[in-house]
Amino acid sequence: MEIPILRVEGLSKNFTLHMLEGEMIYGCDDINFTLNSGEFMGIAGPSGAGKSTILKCIYRTYIPSGGNIWYYSDKIGKIDLSFADERKILRLRYGEIGYVSQFLKVIPRVSTINILRGELLQRGYNAAAANQQACELLEMMKINTSLWEAFPATFSGGEQQRINIARALLMKPRLLLLDEPTAALDNETKKIVIQALLTLKQRGSSIIGVFHDRESMNQLVDRVFTMRSGQCKSIKRKRVAV
Q: What are the boundaries of the signal sequence (predicted)?
């Protein structure tokens, strides 16, 4: 029996351009889908179709203009993310819902290994365990040891994206939202990121990913939603073995 972890009903998001006398831009409209526990769903479509808007509404970076986003939380129970108060949203972000953007946002002058160590310490690891786990994640993501003490701002785009994925791995989220996780990566780096995401799925995470890279998406997802002018339709996919 399939168990839902997320149900999106009639989701819409509009943006008002006040500098243009209140002109409205429609980010997405009447979006409906269910994500089951342990499922990986891809969202595909042209630029400007509303793919990232959906993710940001779920993560509550954007407050939806209409509709409901029902999340089935382990700790809180069934909750509508469209209307939940900020304290509950922050609690879910800390413990259950992760978001990986195309950009690495960290404190500028903290070394890469200390970024991971710090997050692990906040999650209750002792110093030795945090150090070991951080080293294992950096090795898994094929980050050269000479860069572990460097600031991530000095990294290439592909290296920064691998650090983003490493942070998601250490969080072990129930629900992970990915915005172009393989964008602008070379083939070898894509293989590393794809394997890391498959590892997360095998550990039980439910995942929604926005993709332009169809080849990578087809290796990862169970199902694709293709966006057209803010709408989406579901297409079953058969994953390609890595």
A: none
